[in-house]
Model the fold of this input.
Amino acid sequence: MLCGLYANDVIDSHNLPTAAVCVHQLHSSPGFTDSCYDGLYPGHIQTTPIQKALLAVGSGVAALQNPYRHDMVAVLGETTGHLALINLRDRMKNDPEGYTILTERPRIRLSTLDLSRMASLPDGSFGREYLRFLEDNHVTPDSRADVKFVDNEELAYVMQRYREVHDLLHTLLGMPTNMLGEVAVKWFEAAQTGLPMCALGAVLGPLRLNSSRLQSLFTSLGPWALQNGRRSRCILSIFYERRWEQNLEDLRQELNIEPPPVILSAANKRST
Amino acid sequence: MAASMRLLVRRVLRLSHRNINVAAAGGSGRSGCCSGSSSCRCFSDATGDRSTHFGFETVPETEKAKRVYKVFENVAQKYDVMNDAMSLGIHRVWKDMLLHAMHPQPGVRLLDVAGGTGDIAFRFLEYVQSQQERQKRRAARSTQTPSWQDISTNYSTEDKDGPQESKAVVCDINKEMLKVGKQKADSMGVSAGLSWVVGDAEELPFDDDQFDIYTIAFGIRNVTHIDQALQEALRVLKPGGRFMCLEFSKVTNPVLARLYDTYSFQMIPVLGEVIAGDWKSYQYLVESIRKFPDQEEFKGMIEDAGFYCVHYHNLTGGVVALHSGFKL
Done:
């Protein structure tokens, strides 16, 4: 107890626990601090509708000015995606595997992945191809921002799952992380999820492509991505963590995704 | 007199209990966190670990300094941009008004505590330089026909800063903020008469009676024990030295107060998130403004520390107050 720590004291009968006390004055302030999280989930920040609107506008402008601000893209998604998240959550609930995900709440992180086992899987298996994707494109699943501004704990998990599944989607669709690949994945996601942030990215992304890539996008990649986004099974409802051994082609067929019409290599990463 | 007795007792106690975390003796009447603010949650008087406010949260006193350090470490890079965005550039006017009230003459030594990115120090050096030039011009006007001797001595002393060199010392507890300040100085090409020192406002690394002017701009509300900071200010000032403090304060007009509150709590954390990627730090900053004592109370604290002729002046309707006192 505290008594041992201080020289000559008696802790009197205030209810001060040893950890930091989070006592809040009820004020006009909507914010909470994080020493013992007070929102609905760790990292949750309560916001008023005005603040959400301001955040949506501000993050949109910031993301447009500097597309490398992934945190702004994330905030834009969270503040504008309420209806789409409800829709996604309901679709997951109606799917048996999706329902399992909602109850078990798996997270995709380096600490939860058994990389050595995945590396030993045969070529063509989902796990092996995912690992190859991570290595070729020099990305890691740990770089996803945590959800902050979604005011429902379940919807926050759906948002987080969407973020973490993004890399897996790259593998499923066979798209590298260069600009063209990212735009193609965004078109697929926009058609699949209906998140306004995806739609915005889908519309504005092509503005940064050169003409030959634009042509490729509009003639073959784009229509393929949109079609498959509409007809495929809900990609959030797949328990990827239990399907590493599955063959990638089989998984694509199960999800109703056609193989990509154009093979893009990760070597094209630098030149947009 | 009661006030001076209290001061003496407090100083003796402070000296003897300086390095003990918990003030076991109840003699030191008022501590920083219990400074008369009725809404302050200070749970213990003399025994037990003391708690203080961190924004609207209550934390142990020992925690507060660490958490404040973290806040400023996070925001240092974007500090100036955020200041401009949050105050719509008005913070520059406030700082200029501080300098005008200060009216420093060449040869004066300034200590800017919690000076971080150096705004006050840069303005000080500029002001003093323009004062010096003014004096030179006045001197030149008065000697209408200089002799050749005069002209040659003028040329030889032109490059030197002159016998009265003003020095500004920027002191801050946070190394990141000082780093940003130094970078600014380098890019502006200012280096003469400026030093950067890491130090704690509650325990300054300077001898007694060193400085002519002590300023602390928008920093004192982050100090855990404000009265200790005030006493240190008194110590390092020369007799006749001036204490000046620029700090957010209470807005008197109720309409303006409502607008200000709404703006603070709705807009500023959003700006923090969008520009600096840090909501929580700016939430802390707006909350800490609400926990700081108002103009009259702070004036009382300054007087208690031993300053004379303490006055305050409201800027922007009370959003900011400029307090000033003298060591005699």
Summary: Confidence is low (pLDDT under 50) at residues 19-47 of chain B. The interface with chain A takes residues 20-22, 24, 39, 41, 43-44, 47-49, 51, 54-60, 63, 261-262, 265-267, 269-271, 273-275, 277, 279-280, 283-284, 286-287, 290 of chain B (CB under 8 Å). The first helix of chain B runs from residue 2 to 16. The longest strand of chain B covers residues 237-248.
